């Protein structure tokens, strides 16, 4: 049976904003969705994948990189030739983990188009704020000439508004190491997710630290994750709790021995909760928990 690796991450408390478009009367909005009947802010999986790809490129070459000077993506092999049936070329880590798709339409009538597709082995969920968005907005004024493309006439400041959200974000990932061309890249992915830095949404003007404050790993032969979005707001130490996950462990849906927990949430566990989690690995640090999860993957391959 295959070993499946799932993880749930929660970030530290931060202030999300998307401070773009300094034009008069403009409101710079955050992405939102209705979650448990209330409006929450959200960060796309693509934004997380973009930040992860940059981290991966520091470990080994990626096929797709971002040229900051040209403000464009650059491909080393946009034909994905290494994935041809008889190719012996070395594959790129980002193609292996994050997949790809290149579609081309038919060139003549009655012909069929072509598509080169690899499903992402590392699946990433959309990040959702841990708390509802209460509607915080700031009103600002850009000074005349703040940007060359902004106000060109007059000497008055340009008012604009910015939506903000002081919150944590949580998201989850799933992967099956044996589905990778190079299974060892699963550990690289987990390590880089635990070291993720800024993740900006549509625009890169705000810094929100996406390195997880707490994490839950589940390594199992069951295909169902059951731990995604495990974190819930709490007023106690750590600021988050795992009530839903603890219920699943109590009920037997999630065996405690399949879990590795790390970070601030571990410090806030009560004696009773630690008893429920007996058999799970508990670490006060995220990095230590990641190392333990990677070690379990190594053992699982043998």
From TrEMBL:
UniProt xrefs under InterPro entries: Cas7/Cst2/DevR_bac (IPR016581), Cas7/Cst2/DevR_sub_I-B/Tneap (IPR013414), CRISPR-assoc_Cas7/Cst2/DevR (IPR010154)
Pfam family membership, one: DevR
Keywords linked to the UniProt accession: Antiviral defense
Highest taxon above the source species: Bacteria
Coiled-coil annotated spans: none
Single GO BP term: defense response to virus
Function (record text): CRISPR (clustered regularly interspaced short palindromic repeat) is an adaptive immune system that provides protection against mobile genetic elements (viruses, transposable elements and conjugative plasmids). CRISPR clusters contain spacers, sequences complementary to antecedent mobile elements, and target invading nucleic acids. CRISPR clusters are transcribed and processed into CRISPR RNA (crRNA).
Protein name (record): Fruiting body developmental protein R
Source organism of the structure: Pseudomyxococcus hansupus
Lineage of the species this protein comes from: Bacteria, Pseudomonadati, Myxococcota, Myxococcia, Myxococcales
